[in-house]
Amino acid sequence: MVAEEDSAAHTDQEADHTPLCEEQRDVHQVLQAADGEIINLDDIFDIIKAGEVPGVEKLVEKFGYDVLVVRDRHGYTPAHWVALNGNVQMMRFLIEQNAPVDLPCLGTQGPHPIHWACRKGHAAVVQVLLQFGIAVNVADFKGLTPLMTACMYGRTATAAYLLGMGASNNLTDINGDTALHWACYKGHPDLM
């Protein structure tokens, strides 16, 4: 069992106030079921963020696989929100449904879902993603790896797990910073 460091659910508003994905769109997209019923993407993401697998299963039955591959107005996938909220059961469901769990955000930084799990210290979600085959050193658009993200946010258990799984502590981001640099800069002595 892998330790969790943050169990609070997170909302769309929290992501709006982070530099992770700054591009915003005011488009209200919808999906239409075979019977003509329409659902707004915001409603889809609310159900996904609630974290109830049966609710998402009903969405897939009604609206099809597209429910699992859509992006919200900020460019995030369902897997991003599942990773941020640390929902292991839902992440396993997404993987079982062949939903994309390693696409970057469409914003300026391009974090993958594993980066969001590392940001919040959801090592169990990181474990599921790595077991699925996500690269332990996958970088976002600015070169940040999951290990750098864990060190940036002081997620000691997650950083230790990543190192145990082969994460490189010598990689650098676009500014030449390593995971150790981020731990020092952000004031996390337990990661130095």
TrEMBL record:
An example of a Pfam family matching this protein is Ank_2
Q: Which UniProt keywords apply?
A: ANK repeat, Repeat
Which Gene3D superfamilies does the protein's record reference? Ankyrin repeat-containing domain
ANK repeats, residue ranges? 74-102, 109-141, 142-174, 175-192
Q: For bias kind Basic and acidic residues, which ranges apply? A: 7-20
> Region (Disordered): which ranges?
1-20
Concerning SMART domains, the annotation shows: ANK
Output this protein's name: Uncharacterized protein
Tell me the classification of the organism that encodes this protein: Eukaryota, Metazoa, Ecdysozoa, Arthropoda, Hexapoda
